[in-house]
Write a structure and sequence with these properties.
With 606 residues, the chain is mostly beta strands. The protein contains two helices and 43 strands. Strand 39 and strand 40 form a beta hairpin. It starts with a helix and ends with a strand.
């Protein structure tokens, strides 16, 4: 009997050991298999497609499971040994599935684009950057007094003064524009300038109709710093006449008691553009809604792309708490909304809003007036937003409504905050109202590189747009051609992508692409320091990009290749956009992109 008990005890121990081992093995086999190498692909119709090329599957317990991968497609394709011959052009959603011996399953996904049969690729257009100087002086001329060691000239998309010695007086070195017509109006002049070392300037408006030398006004002892910034002058004309605008860069000593504080020698001053505003008439602002921030529905926050946050209303303020920013996404990933109850916006009418915001960290983004129900489907106004950490900022905007909106809101679309993991935005005041009157502002931009803002040359395909062209806070840049290349220098980076745009194809000279063809765009370029941009091939007049990519420029020349995946049913006008603005671009001192080649290849459908 004792022997039997010993046997049973032994059997019980063995069973426990086996059970423990099984449990241990089961615990180790909890990781699903991994699939690698799955990627979007494109093939012409009627050609063999190998869905398994470069694709593998492995499992920690079962090893190589590549042979167990099952590929399916929607619309359906017939796969034999991972290969299929798609006959119909279009997009096919592929699903890769593998299951290990323990029943754990992994799926991976890709898109197969099947294109129509085409002939051989031919060159449709190769951009010509050897056409010479694309600069326009807009009537500005350099004046250097006799014996003064300085040169003023147009080069590299700017008006550049190389000053060895500033002379004896402020007028010894001048940038001048004569014959500027005036009427009864207020005027504002902004000269966007920088220098490679600090120096000084005077900005004057001389009355050309006065019998002796008189000015409408002047701005004196203006510091010219190493970062591009506007030098500003305001003056008033009581009637019709004309002015000569003068930027004096000669000898200036702001404080005679400190002769060492004076205009620099051996300095280079660069002027990208000059903006002239003519402001006439009057206007009144009538509020139609003032927020008291007493109701919870006065503010709302939605977040996507991995971001998170909340909106609360308390103590007369709307507080937007951003807990996490998106790892990937865009300025649209976080939406902070302020309601405008009882407000109706009519297309073509003028409105204003003003709000006071404090941000815990730097914050950039977009500020929109659009429909609470339709979002950008019914948008009245589009503007940018820039907030500094810890500063109370008053955001004011006057606009003419692009569309009518029956249930508008103010939406702040917020991108990442440079260097911050979270943020808090507090809105303590919001007023929205209607603008009435005949106040009119006419702005002229004398850009020294080809720019849409300065009536771009219709003979030139390429141009640029920068945020300050429309009075956004950031975004200054210029373009030029030299030695067979196109250069785009960003002197001030914007904080949203449309603040710094290099454009091929514009209203006066579109990039026209023919029907029934696929296109390959080949770009060879480098930059003075690493910088990224969004690249888009977009039909003019709408936003429906046929190519959407990211380009990472480095100091080494690279060639980038992008292809369309759909044919056009008719010849269409396009714009090719390089959009650089971002928090990272804004943090750069300046960066120059050099493009040595852009070639567009056409493959016609047979």
């Amino acid at each position: 009997m004792k022997a039997i008990k010993k046997v049973w005890a032994l059997l019980l121990c063995l069973a426990m050991v086996v059970s423990m081992a099984a449990c241990a093995n089961s615990g180790e086999n909890t990781a699903a298999p991994e699939i690698s190498g799955v990627a979007d692909q494109s093939v012409p119709a009627g050609t063999e497609f190998d869905a398994m090329a470069g694709v593998t599957a492995t499992d920690a317990e079962d090893g190589d499971l590549t042979g167990q991968i099952v590929v399916t497609s929607l619309p359906e394709l017939t796969f034999t040994n991972g290969k299929a011959v798609p006959e119909a052009p279009g997009s096919y959603e592929l699903t890769y599935t593998v299951t290990d011996k323990g029943g754990l399953e992994t799926k991976a996904y890709a898109t197969l684009t099947v294109t129509r049969q085409t002939g051989e690729a031919t060159v449709l257009q190769q951009m010509d950057f050897s056409a010479g100087d694309t600069l326009d002086s807009h009537g500005w001329t350099a004046r250097i007094a006799e014996g003064v060691e300085a040169v003023g000239e147009q080069k590299q998309g700017a008006f550049v003064f190389t000053i060895t010695d500033p002379g004896q007086g402020d007028g010894d070195i001048q940038l001048a524009k004569a014959g500027v017509p005036l009427k009864a109006a207020d005027y504002r002049v902004k000269v966007w300038a920088k220098a490679d070392k600090p120096t000084y300037a005077h900005l004057l408006a001389r009355d050309e109709n006065a019998e002796d030398w008189q000015t409408f006004g002047g701005a004196y002892n203006l510091p010219v710093g190493t970062q591009i910034a506007p030098l500003e002058l305001t003056f008033t004309s009581t009637g019709e006449g004309s002015a000569e605008l003068l930027l004096n860069l000669g000898k200036i000593t702001p404080n005679p008691e400190n002769p060492d504080d004076t205009s620099a020698s051996d300095v280079v001053v660069t002027i990208d553009k000059i903006e002239i505003y003519e402001i006439s008439g009057t206007q009144t602002q009538t509020p139609v809604y003032t927020a008291d921030f007493a109701q919870g529905d006065a503010a709302a926050l939605t977040a996507g792309d991995g971001a998170s946050g909340t909106a609360t209303v308390a103590d007369g303020a709307a507080v937007f708490q951003i807990d996490t920013y998106p790892a990937e996404g865009g300025v649209w990933s976080i939406k902070a909304d302020l309601a405008l109850p009882g407000v109706t916006v009519e297309a073509g009418e003028k409105y204003y809003y003003t709000m006071t915001i404090t941000a815990a960290q730097d914050q950039s983004g977009e500020c929109l007036v659009e429909s609470a129900a339709q979002a950008d489907g019914a948008r009245a106004n589009f503007n940018s937003l820039s907030l500094k950490a810890g500063e109370e900022t008053v955001i004011t905007n006057v606009f003419t409504a692009e569309n009518g909106v029956s249930n508008p809101m103010i939406r702040m679309q917020l991108g990442t905050s440079s260097g911050a993991a979270a943020n808090t935005l507090t809105v303590t005041k919001l007023e929205f109202g209607k603008v009435e009157g005949d106040l009119e502002t006419v702005k002229t931009i004398d850009a020294f590189g080809a720019s849409i803002a300065a009536n771009t040359n219709p003979d030139i395909l390429f141009t640029t747009y920068n945020g300050t062209d429309e009075d956004n806070e950031l975004g200054v840049g210029t373009i030029w051609t030299e030695n067979g290349s196109l250069f785009y220098r960003i002197d001030q980076g914007g904080n949203v992508d449309w603040h710094n745009k290099l454009i091929f194809g514009h209203g006066q000279k579109p990039l026209t692409l023919p029907a029934d063809s696929y296109f390959t765009i080949e770009i060879t370029a480098k930059a003075s320091q690493p910088v990224s941009c969004g690249f888009f091939l977009n039909p003019m007049g709408s936003w429906d990009p046929r190519i959407t990519e990211t380009i990472d420029f480095t100091t080494q020349e690279q060639t980038f290749t992008f292809k369309t995946t759909e044919t056009l049913i008719m010849d269409m006008d396009f714009e090719m956009l390089f959009q650089f603005g971002s928090a990272e671009t804004a943090a750069l001192d300046n960066v120059t992109i050099e493009i040595s080649n852009i070639t567009i290849y056409q493959e016609s459908v047979v």
